[in-house]
Every structure is written in C-alpha cells, then in structure tokens.
User: Which sequence fits this backbone?
C-alpha cells in the first residue's frame, strides 16, 4: 500500500512593494535572491523535503509569474502550478485552490502556506509540525489546524492567533484549542501577549481538508461560493479555462479571514504554537531583524564598506562601492537604477512612494 501524503500549497502571488526597489511588479520578492544564492520561493520549497516529494507540492501564483516559477522549480510537475487569472485577494485564492482539490482529493489533508517569502530557521521542526497537523486532520476531517510562531518580541505589524487550554499532544507537541484572531495590536497589548502564553504570531499557515473548507465557503461566503461552484463544475471539461477566465476576475476581493475564519465556530480550530525561528521578510526592517543576531548588528550584502555604523542594513546589487559612515538604524539599498536611503522606522512609507510613481516618468521602476 502506498502511503497517502498530505498535499502542500504555497502561495506565491504578492508583489511585495515594501521590499522595493529590489521587489517589483515583474520580479516580486519571492523570486529574488535576497538571502544567499537561492530565491525565497526555492528556500520555501526546499524546507518541505524530505518529508514531502515534488508531486506533493503545489504553487499557486499569478499568470504573469508562471514562467518564473517553472524556471526556478524545474523539478515541479507542470500541473502542480496553479494559476490565478487575476489577483483577487486571499479569500478567492484559497477558494480557487479548494474548488480544485475538493474535486480530486476532498478528504485528503491539505496544507495551505501563505508567504513563499518567509524565513523558517527550524526546518526540521517545521516539517514535524506539518506532520502533526496532518495527523490531527486525518483523525477528524472537520478541523482546521493553525500553525503559529511563539512570539519572540512585541511585534505590532503582525496578526496574532489567540488560543486557550491544551487539549492534547501529538508527537510531543502541545495542541491548543483555538479562540480567535487578533489584529495588529498597540504596543502595550503586544507586550502582554508575548508573555501570557495564549497568543502566537499568525503566519497564515493552516492544515484542513478541502471538503471542510468547501463547506465553510458555502456556509459563510455564499456569493463567492456560487462563482467557485461554476469553476468547480467546469474542472475536467474543455470549457474549464474559458469559465475560469470569465468568472474568476469578477469575484469580489476579500481576505480569507473576513470571508471565512472570523465567522467559523472556534470549536473547529486547533493551534500548534511553536518556535520555528520564523520571520516574515516582507519589508527591509523585518529582513534586518531576521538576519541579525542582535539589534545593533549590521546586515550587508555586496560591495559595502561601513565605518562607525550600527543597526543598519546596507544592500548593494551593483559593482559600485557603497560606503556608509556613522549610520544608525538606517536602510540603504542600491539596485543600480534606484538608490533607497531611509531610517528603518520609515520603511512603511516606501509603499506610498512606489504607489506615487504610477503615471509618472518613473513608473517603469515600480
């Protein structure tokens, strides 16, 4: 008997303007070599092995990135690249994946991992956690198991998963009952949550069955479900591509949390809260935190010379020498056609700058 193995879907569709000027519309951050010689997407897939094989891995991405994904993941079966005709936010993206898998593997556990640009240092533990979540879902198909990172500090930029008491243990890992989601907290609240032992950073990682997800879409997002059902009905027919192209772009943009998770009865949720050494490197200051041992340490890349500098990130992607003197808490990124210089605390404004370039002579740089 061949053991059935859970399928893993990695979402790789976002643009990532907070890592501009390295991350751009045509070359988003997940396809860039930000750390070492592998792209973030390649790093994200690599951490699934050897617990999973290429046939177990799926990538959900936009049509415009299909070729990049094929080039970066040459071993991935071509049918395992799942294309969104147009970006419609996380709710429809998860719905489309659900409509595909509910047709072929309705009761087989599926892991949905948001963020193909995340860094996970504890890769072996990460695989162990996914396997534990798979086991929980095999025991009860009407479950969603959320994987959270034990908070390392009072992060105000992330959402949090709130959980209550421990209900069981799987493979030495405590399993908690899910309570609800909390969104970006004020500092005082975040500081409390780090210490109280009932909150984890929400990574957007969860394991469930397509059949259960499908049921939740039907129950809580009926308008979205009607359109997903039309797509689902066309799977395996000559009309599928046409139906997908016609219907998917008309779906209203909505987050998965708003569409489903906030309405779901908490009793269906389990939480695995572990220290995965996880970092979201969706912005320069987060990348700095992920790559430095302590806050004062500098992170550099390329031909860089710094003197009397602390707590700074200096990335140089050109052959030109970049010299920094007396920098403190700064971000410097040189891509050749753009030079970004700002304090770490000002990185959130990068997104506004990029948006402001549309319709100007610098639009090609976005």
Assistant:
């Amino acid at each position: 008997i061949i053991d059935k193995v859970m399928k893993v879907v990695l979402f790789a569709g976002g643009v990532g303007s907070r890592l501009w000027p390295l991350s751009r519309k045509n070359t988003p951050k997940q396809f860039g070599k930000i750390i070492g010689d592998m792209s973030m997407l390649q790093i994200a897939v690599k951490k699934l092995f050897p617990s999973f094989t290429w046939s177990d891995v799926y990538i959900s991405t936009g049509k415009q990135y299909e070729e990049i994904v094929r080039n970066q993941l040459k071993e991935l079966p071509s049918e395992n690249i799942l294309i969104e005709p147009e970006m419609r936010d996380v709710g429809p993206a998860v719905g489309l994946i659900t409509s595909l898998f509910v047709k072929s593997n309705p009761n087989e556990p599926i892991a949905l991992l948001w963020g193909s640009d995340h860094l996970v240092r504890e890769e072996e533990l990460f695989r162990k956690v996914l396997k534990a979540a798979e086991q929980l879902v095999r025991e009860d198909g009407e479950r969603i198991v959320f994987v959270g990172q034990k908070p390392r500090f009072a992060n105000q930029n992330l959402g949090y998963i709130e959980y209550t008491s421990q209900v069981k243990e799987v493979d030495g890992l405590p399993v908690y009952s899910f309570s609800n989601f909390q969104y970006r907290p004020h500092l005082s609240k975040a500081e409390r949550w780090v210490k109280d032992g009932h909150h984890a950073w929400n990574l957007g990682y969860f394991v469930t069955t397509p059949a259960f997800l499908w049921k939740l879409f039907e129950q809580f997002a009926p308008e979205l479900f009607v359109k997903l059902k039309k797509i689902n009905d066309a799977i395996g027919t000559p009309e599928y591509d046409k139906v997908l192209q016609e219907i998917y772009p008309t779906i209203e943009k909505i987050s998965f949390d708003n569409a489903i998770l906030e309405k779901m009865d908490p009793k269906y949720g389990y939480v695995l809260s572990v220290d995965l050494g996880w970092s979201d490197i969706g912005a320069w200051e987060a990348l700095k935190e992920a790559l430095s041992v302590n806050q004062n340490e500098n992170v550099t890349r390329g031909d860089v010379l710094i003197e009397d500098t602390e707590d700074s990130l200096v990335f140089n992607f050109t052959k030109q020498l970049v010299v920094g003197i007396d920098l403190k808490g700064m971000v410097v990124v040189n891509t050749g056609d753009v030079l970004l210089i700002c304090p770490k605390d000002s990185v959130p404004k990068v997104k506004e700058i990029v948006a402001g370039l549309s319709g100007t002579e610098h639009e090609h740089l976005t």
